[in-house]
Amino acid sequence: MPAVTAPASQLAVGQHVIVRHLHIGMLPGTVEQVEGASVVVALAVKDDRIGRTIGQDWAVEATSGRGIFRYPGRLTADRNGSLSMALSGEVERIQRREFVRIEAFLDVTVRGVDEQVGGDTTTVDVSGSGIQIQDKWELPLGIDVRVELKLPEGPPLRALGRVVRVGQEAEQKGIRMDGIARADEDRLMRYIRDREVQALRAARGR
């Protein structure tokens, strides 16, 4: 996982990010303030466990056109769900965004992070950075969701996501997935590659 040059100043106020802790896991939030190597992130949902982690290692993960960047740092304060972090300056690009999208009909559960919406449905297509689903609930654009995607093998893939677009049909919605665990990302990419190989073989009449 190579380190790259991506200073804290590349984080912008209003940017949607993921904050991550080894034991608490991933939490969605929005950048409230950036000053030098310090950043303040307002959580979408408060977590009472955070106060016990002040002084411990955290990271901020942000998506750009070149990938997902992880900014490691240390939590310095938790003010009613606004987390202040001192970033270390060592930044890692953890996932490329140029992914093939394939047609796939997989069972998936989508539920709002802080709104009581969603449930069980199926995907229309899948890529390494997101999914398109059959939307039974008219999910609003911009809503943060939790995704549980059932791949053919292994346990469900779990990720945070955001509804980012309306599909070619009104009842379809595109969800960008962020903060996918490395093992789940690898499983998803293997599934996509296998489907690509199957499609090539079918096209060649094998």
Which terms would index this structure?
206 residues, Thrombin, subunit H, mainly beta, single chain, 6-stranded antiparallel beta barrel, Pnp Oxidase, Chain A, 6-stranded antiparallel β-barrel, disordered N terminus, 2 domains, globular
Describe this structure in words.
By secondary structure, the protein is mainly beta. It folds into two domains: 3-95, Pnp Oxidase, Chain A (Roll), CATH 2.30.110.70; 102-203, Thrombin, subunit H (Beta Barrel), CATH 2.40.10.220. The chain is built from one helix and 15 strands; from the N terminus they run βββββββββββββββα. The strands form two sheets. The chain has a six-stranded antiparallel barrel with strand order 2-3-4-7-6-5. The protein has a six-stranded antiparallel β-barrel with strand order 10-11-12-15-14-13. A hairpin with a 5-residue loop joins strand 10 (107-112) and strand 11 (118-126). The termini are far apart. The model is unreliable at 1-8 (pLDDT under 50).
